[in-house]
Amino acid sequence: MREPEPTAADQWSTWPTEPELPGCWPGLGDEHRGDGFHIDRKGVRSVAGQIVGLSFGMQRFDGVQDAGPGVPEGEWLLPYHLGLMLSSAAHAVDVFWRDLHAEVGVAGLLIERASSRYDLADDPKLGDVPDSTLRERLPITGDRNHLSDLYPNGSIDLKLPGTSYDVGHLTASQAQWSVSTLPGAAGAAGMIFGRMPEPLVDLANLLLRRAQDLRDAPWYGAAADRAQGVLRQIHANATALAAVSGRLDAAARSYVEISDWCRKNFERVADPDRGVLHETFDFGGTPDSRARDFLARANSAYMEVYDSMPKRIAEDLPGLQVTDRDVGAEGRRFLELRLRAEKSLADNLADGPQWWVDHEEVFEGRRQAEKEYG
User: Fold this and answer.
1) In this structure, are residues 353 and 158 in contact, taking their beta carbons and an 8 Å threshold?
2) Do the beta carbons of residue 303 and residue 319 sit within 8 Å?
3) Residues 353, 84: contact at Cβ < 8 Å?
4) pLDDT digit string (tens) for 15-64?
5) What is residue 15's three-state secondary structure?
6) 255 in any annotated domain
7) Angstrom distance (rounded) from CA 128 to CA 368
8) What is the per-residue pLDDT across 73-126, written as a single tens digit (0 to 9) for each?
9) 189 falls within a domain
10) Which parts of the chain are beta strand (E)?
11) In this structure, is the dihedral angle defined by the CA atoms of residues 162, 95, 16 and 23, taken in order, positive or negative?
12) Which residue ranges are recorded for the region named Disordered (predicted)?
């Protein structure tokens, strides 16, 4: 009797949440063909077209807001900070998704272009794709400023700030207001996290198959090694995004469940409207003390959610979309100004985890990509 095929969840649940190159890859390592150069141009061109087609998954979430579960208001800091963090994470995975699929498309176009080049044996660099070709062949809109703040190797931390989450200073009325703004069960419906893992598992599996097809075309030599290395690195990013979005989905759903339970049960458990006169006779504490006890118990559950979350969302793409323009003085200045403006905005907001990316890290990643791929 045949073993059942692993589900998408079976696969992504074993993958790391940050890009790690798979140990084995077609045409590389033990499968490397050694010296020499050979390319079946028709076969390589056919496989390249299939790789380009995979990039159209980028449009899957067009028109879908990159929503987290929602950010509550009030003085209760822990659910507020978790809501902010999940909101930033939702934006980050959406950006990562688009960067990943654009990289797949550009890889396909460069491999397609390689199939018609006769200088590959002497110059194995993959080069750039003209802007006009990108707009014509891929679901990318706008000009070359489409590179995201994370591309190709940016990251954001998902860590709580060094803030005390003690609730001993909150009054019953403050607690009541804070609880009333928590997301309800409907907050889980619009989240983007749970929609990503399954198609990303499909993408990772198809990238591996297309890499096998390129090897079998056959195509080997220095340019083929570079192309396979690119597909291997993109595959590592697809698996990481599947794993991080799947784990964030579980955390965000737990966050919503706890929040919804608090909304529905605060009045019954904390009984904030019961007057002091009643306390004299039944020793039931005060409205403030009952509210604080309620929030403290909920805080323990929220911290378990935080502990279960990945602590970083990180891209590590090859950088095929980078051009000379992106690594020149003007490109550096543009990136630095934009990311500094975002950090300034985050610093001016209420304290808590906010989106910002180290522009030096990203610029150096772009510079290295241009040096590697030309």
Assistant:
1) yes
2) no
3) yes
4) 999 999 999 999 998 787 767 788 999 999 999 999 999 999 888 876 56
5) coil
6) yes
7) 14
8) 999 999 999 999 999 999 999 999 999 999 999 999 999 999 888 787 667 788
9) yes
10) 38-39, 155-157, 219-220, 312-314
11) negative
12) 1-27
- Does this model's pTM top 0.90? My answer is yes
Q: Which of 193, 332, 184 is nearest to 257 (CA)?
A: 184
Q: Per residue in 108-144, is it b (16+ CB within 10 Å) or e — as a string?
A: bbbbbbbbebeebeeebebebbeeeebeebbbbeeee
> Is 2 a domain residue?
no
Q: How far is CA 130 from CA 74, 222, 230, 362, in A?
A: 51, 23, 19, 22
Q: 200, 125, 164, 150: which is closest to 296 by C-alpha? A: 164
Does residue 179 register a pLDDT over 90?
yes
pLDDT at 144 > cutoff 50: no
Sign of CA dihedral 155, 342, 181, 195: negative
Sign of the alpha-carbon dihedral angle for 42, 44, 50, 56:
negative
Measured CA distances, 50 to 44, 46, 47, 115, 232 (Å): 10, 7, 5, 14, 16
**39 bridge partner residues:** 219
Backbone angles phi, psi at 239, to 5 degrees: -70, -40
List helix spans (H) across 181-221.
Answer: 197-216
- Across 6-67, where does the E strand assignment appear? 38-39
Count of domains observed in the chain: 1
Rounded to whole angstroms, the Cα distance separating 155 from 112 reads 30
- Domain region containing 65: 34-373
Q: What percent of the chain has pLDDT over 90?
A: 62
Output b/e per residue, 217-249; b: 16+ Cβ within 10 A. Answer: bebbbbbbbbbbbbbbbbbbbbbbbbbbbbbbb
Instruction: Label residue 65 by pLDDT band (50, 70, 90).
Output: low
Task: Evaluate whether 267 touches 138 at the Cβ level (below 8 Å).
Answer: no
**Inside any domain, residue 43:** yes
Q: Are strands 312-314 and 38-39 parallel, antiparallel or unpaired?
A: unpaired
Task: Report d(CA 108, CA 114) in Å as an integer.
Answer: 10
